[in-house]
Design goal:
With 252 residues, the protein is mainly α. Helix content is 63%, strand content 5%. Helix 1 packs across helix 5, helix 8 packs antiparallel against helix 9 and helix 9 packs antiparallel against helix 10. The protein starts with a helix and ends in a 5-residue tail after the last helix. The relative contact order is 0.12.
Length: 252
C-alpha cells in the first residue's frame, strides 16, 4: 500500500528533522515526533484540499491526487519531456508533474516534508510557511531530498527578513506560537523587530484569507487553487519592508 511506503519515507524525514531542529523544539514537540505510530499516522482521504492537512496528530493526504494524476495522464504532453524540478509556482509544478509522468507516490513524496513541520507547528500562518519553504530548500540540498516548492512567494519575503533576525532566531520563532514569538523577538531584538514580524505575518495572512480554508474539490479544484494562489501578490509586504529599511537605515 502507498501508505506503508510513505510511512517508511516519513521515518527517514522525521530523523532528519529531529537531527536538524531538536535544539529549537520544546519537549512536547520532540515527544510528538518520537512517539509517532507510523502504522496509523498517514491516511489517504477524500478531502477537498489540494495537498492535505495535519489533524489531531495525523497526516491526512488528499485522494485528489489520484484524480490529478489520472487527469494529467490524459494530457497530450504527459511524460514527454524531462526537466529539473520547477520551483517557480504551483502551476509550474503541475506542468513538471505532467512532463515527468508522475505517480501518486512521487507526488506525495515531494510534499511529505511539509507535513513533518506541520506536526509540530504552533502558528500555522502563511508567512511561517515561507520560512518552512526556506528550511525545506536547505534540507533538500543538504540531504539530496526531492521536494515541491509550495510557498515560493512567501519564502521570498522570509529570505528578506532572515538577515535582520538571523537564521537561528528565524528557526526559533518558527516553532513558537505567535504571541510567544513576538515576546521572544521583543526581548532579544527589540520592539521594532517584534512589530515587523507581527505586521508582516498579518499582511501575508490577509492576502491569503480568500483561499485559506476554501474547498477545492477534484482536479478542477486543484487547477483553481493553483490559479488563485498564483494571483496573490505581496506588494504591501514589500512596501512595508522598504519603509522599515528606510526608517531604520538598513539594507534589506
Amino acid at each position: 500500500m502507498i501508505e506503508n511506503t510513505l510511512s517508511e519515507m516519513l521515518k527517514k524525514y522525521i530523523n532528519i528533522f529531529i537531527n536538524e531542529y531538536k535544539d529549537y523544539l520544546s519537549k512536547d514537540q520532540l515527544e510528538t515526533l518520537r512517539t509517532i505510530n507510523y502504522n496509523k499516522i498517514i491516511n489517504l482521504e477524500n478531502l477537498d484540499v489540494p495537498f492535505g492537512l495535519v489533524s489531531f496528530g495525523k497526516i491526512r493526504l488528499s485522494n485528489i491526487s489520484n484524480d490529478l494524476i489520472n487527469s494529467l495522464q490524459k494530457m497530450d504532453n504527459y511524460n514527454t519531456t524531462k526537466y529539473n524540478l520547477n520551483n517557480k509556482n504551483i502551476s509550474s509544478y503541475l506542468k513538471y508533474m505532467c512532463e515527468n509522468g508522475y505517480s501518486s507516490l512521487e507526488y506525495f513524496g515531494d510534499i511529505l516534508m511539509y507535513f513533518v513541520f506541520e506536526l509540530v507547528l504552533k502558528n500555522p500562518s502563511i508567512f511561517n510557511h515561507g520560512i518552512i519553504n526556506q528550511e525545506i530548500r536547505f534540507l533538500s540540498i543538504k540531504y539530496s531530498l526531492r521536494s515541491a516548492n509550495l510557498y515560493a512567494k512567501e519564502e521570498t519575503i522570509a529570505t528578506k527578513i532572515t538577515p535582520l533576525f538571523q537564521l537561528d532566531t528565524m528557526r526559533r520563532i518558527l516553532f513558537m506560537d505567535k504571541p510567544t514569538a513576538f515576546l521572544y523577538l521583543n526581548k532579544h531584538l527589540g520592539f521594532r523587530y517584534a512589530k515587523l514580524y507581527d505586521d508582516i505575518t498579518n499582511i501575508v495572512d490577509d492576502k491569503n484569507k480568500n483561499i485559506k480554508g476554501k474547498d477545492y474539490p477534484g482536479f478542477e479544484g486543484f487547477l483553481n487553487y493553483a490559479d488563485d494562489y498564483d494571483e496573490i501578490t505581496y506588494g504591501d509586504a514589500y512596501n512595508y519592508l522598504l519603509d522599515f529599511e528606510v526608517e531604520n537605515k538598513l539594507n534589506i
